[in-house]
Design brief:
2 domains; 71 residues; elongated
């Protein structure tokens, strides 16, 4: 009996990350179907630029504020 419990718990522990990953993939697929709004595209572009400049912390906040306020 204890072996069955250990086996079931082990299988559950191994299956949980797989199930969580699948739900995230389906969420990403749903979001990929919708086109980005202008604001979302601007946010994405600013994030890419901030990442390429390796900005962090207050520098990143200041950069993002400036980048997003540009028209």
């Amino acid at each position: 009996m204890p072996r069955r419990i250990v086996l079931v718990l082990t299988l559950f522990a191994l299956a949980t990350p797989v199930l969580a990953d699948n739900s995230q993939q389906s969420k990403d697929a749903t979001q990929a179907d919708k086109p980005l709004t202008a604001q979302q595209q601007k946010m994405r572009d600013c994030n890419v630029e901030a990442k390429s400049k390796s900005l962090k912390g207050d520098e990143r906040k200041k950069f993002m504020s400036t980048c997003l306020s540009k028209s």
